[in-house]
Amino acid sequence: MRGRAATRLASRSRAARVTALLVAAIGTAMFATACSKSAPAATSAQASPAVTVPAAGPSSPATAEPSVTPAPPSTAPAAPVPGYCRRGGAKLWANLAGCGWPGPANTGPDRSQCPGRRLASTAGPRTRTIRITAANTVISCQDIQGMLDIEARNVTVRNSVIVANSGKTGEAANGTAGIKVEDGASAVIDHVTINGDEGVHACVWHQGTSLVVRAVNCYGSNDGIFSWADHGYSRTTGDHFVISDSYFHDFTDKTSNGHSDGYQTEGASAGLIQHNTYEMTAGADSAIALWDSLRDSRGISVKDNLITGGGFAIYAEDYSPGDGAPGDPRAVGGYSVSDIRFTGNVFSTYAAGCVGKFGVWFDRPGWPPYGGGPTDGWLRHGNRVLETGQNLDHGNPSGPGLSCG
User: Fold this and answer.
1) What is the DSSP secondary-structure string of 333-352?
2) Which of 81, 263, 328, 404 is the most exposed place for a label (fewest CB within 10 A)?
3) Domain map of the chain by residue range?
4) CA proximity to 101, closest of 399, 393, 386
5) List of residues 6+ apart from 95 with CB closer than 8 A
6) Element (H or E) spanning 15, and its range?
């Protein structure tokens, strides 16, 4: 495990030098915007008109959002929850939405919100970079080929599909993403499918001022969402994020260092990761990885998620300046991992008997002084194994035939 951590740190240091994505040789496509000049971030972009996305060349005029009449509330009694939703197994994972979890049926674009229930095609190479440079831009009901580079405040991408490929493999792809939120930018990504096409580092790369991700279907990248600490810009890049109701699955090992994580940071604060599905394989790195090689990770709540897979499903490890492993410095001083709360998460043995290949929580009691965990200890409440009901607030799964941790 220590060798993997060292490899990760080396690869992430290269990503620090990735300050912008390459603009495709065919040129940059510019989006029409809701405002003609920059403005401070608003609390909501719902009133902004949608944007018509050109394939290339000059901007198109903005078009109005379709009028949608909300359906009246249903008075029918709720259907009983199928037994397999409580028992787990392959049938649950094939019917995630029916069991109340994010999955392919309830994430990605809601075409009922689009004219004619169709997405407008934005043709072009998947390797191009499409820069979003004006505040309050709204991109809606689009089928986009290429990487979105958000450089402005209060940008909204909703009810759309993005297929992106950097054209690079391995660590040459570090810092690339289907959607990249740049320094000083902020974004809401709502009901969007992001296909990384086995050619980008992350579905969403966040080094902006704030990020909201809702009902996103993310696959084909090496990591799901990555919060990046760009010290060259400020001490708060990648902070202030909410990730909810989203489905993360089918990652690739062809980009970055090949170690897949559903969410990862080397230092971020003020985050909420709530009610997502992380369908990782036992060969992945983790569902959620919180580290501190670049700055403190603190004030992050992980709650009500469905999780399977990873080597360990969860890392929340203070390894700055070291982790206390034999021959490694103690994790005293440097940065810290603190106030990280895990509440009400449901862990499934679908990928492995220990949930992850080795377990749920990465801990090493023999590594002083934090045992491979957070600086202030594990803050866990109401976490359990789906299939057995076993409480996981005090350690990894246990039982006949299991050797977890």
Assistant:
1) SS--EEEEEEES-EE-TTS-
2) 81
3) 2-18+27-35+45-60+82-385
4) 386
5) 82, 84, 85, 103
6) helix 2-15
- Cα 377 to the center of its chain, rounded Å: 24
- Identify the band that residue 18 occupies on the pLDDT scale cut at 50, 70 and 90: very low
Neighbouring C-beta atoms of residue 53, cutoff 10 Å: 26
Q: What is the DSSP string of 67-116?
A: P-PPPPPP-SPPPPPPHHHHH-SHHHHH-TGGGTS--TTTSS--GGGSGG
Q: How far is CA 80 from CA 72, 77, 84, 276, 386, in A?
A: 22, 9, 12, 22, 18
- pTM score, whole prediction: 0.83
Amino acid present at 321: P
What amino acid is encoded at 91 in this protein? K
Is 108 in a helix, a strand, or coil? coil
Flag the least confident range among 67-76, 80-89, 169-178: 67-76
**Residue 79 CA from chain centroid, whole number:** 31
pLDDT digits (tens, 9 = 90+) for 172-219: 999 999 999 999 999 999 999 999 999 999 999 999 999 999 999 999
